[in-house]
Design brief:
Blueprint lengths: L9 H17 L1 E8 L6 H18 L5 E2 L2 E9 L4 H13 L5 E3 L4 H14 L2 E4 L16 E3 L4 H12 L5 E7 L2 H14 L5 E8 L7 H11 L6 E6 L7 H5 L8 E5 L4 H4 L9 E4 L9 H14 L5 H20 L4 H8 L3 E4 L2 E5 L6 E2 L2 E7 L8 E8 L11
Length: about 400
Amino acid sequence: MTFTTSARSAPLAVLLWAALCAAAAQAEIRIAHVYGKTGPLEAYAAQSHTGLMMGLEYATGGTMTVNGETLVVIEKDTQLDPARGRALLEEAYGDDGAALAVGPVSSGVALAMLPVAEEYERLLIVEPAVADSITGTNWNRYVFRTGRNSSQDAIANAVALGAPGVKIATLAQDYAFGRDGVAAFREALVGTGAELVHEEYVPSDTTDFTAAAERIFTTMKDMEGDKKLFLIWAGAGNPMSKINAMEPDRFGVEIATGGNILAALAAYKELPGMEGATYYYHDIPDNPVNDWLVAEHQARFGTPPDFFTAGGMAAGIAVVEALRKAGSTDTEALIAAMEGMEWQTPKGTMRFRPEDHQALQSMYHFRIRVDPAVDWAIPELVRELGIDDLPIPLRN
């Protein structure tokens, strides 16, 4: 049997073909990853993207499809510039047709991006920017965060470090991440018996910490009891080694800090026995998702997964679970699906708090152990601090 197309039927055939092409083009879900691929936090960014892609892969069983539609990830580099981050998110929603976005790395960039999500009425899943104000005073209902916030860091470290009679000073970067972190830490120390006696803030590009450290030592040198200097720092230029070289133990001051990426943990080898709290270390969580991540990352890259790889994976899994639960990319359906949603991650169960969309999650109290055969210091688990152990305040 032979089929022919008449001149009159040709336009109909063209229209049908166009409709089929449009349907095929629509059979995808675009996800924008808007993050700082270049700049001082590029190591964090690379881990976050690897984790996001592995999370999407894991949650879809390798198909990269949800509800019959293909997941397409569009990468956009903020270069850690808040104005650029805002413009790129507008581009992702407005020009690229992204159903939702993930990112960024920097808290300052995240704060600039939040109003864009509200303006376009599209979801922004914040990972891994930390400042409390992201799901606090600057929050809107289109923002969810899979990453931990400053309060989770602070409360976990306060539990690890705080005790009656302990005197603590802080040194932090002078922007949202550092100031929110210290504010939350100060609040979290209340009730532990510890006292915050001094705060120092320095620019993120500081390389000489002498003046700040001397002010701390002058304040603390004549105090009685245990004395700790708690560092809150992100990215390059971590002051820990430089301050340790100034021999703070002359004044009875011990350095303390939270967890970090493997490259930064190399410097922790100078401080065996140091305690703090961390978001993730690959050997600590014991669950099937983390088992898969550790094995696959080691096989593909020759290294264990790092701090922000786990966070990126948690975001990727959350995206897939939300799309499945909502049954569509409709923003209101996604919000309804995600408020109160629990899902499994490399850290175990996470839960989006309905009131502010912050992901509640475990943290880990650690003690540093040094093994000459390992290139970095090992944060050994002292105890897991679960969701119910961390009373995270609402900030909005």
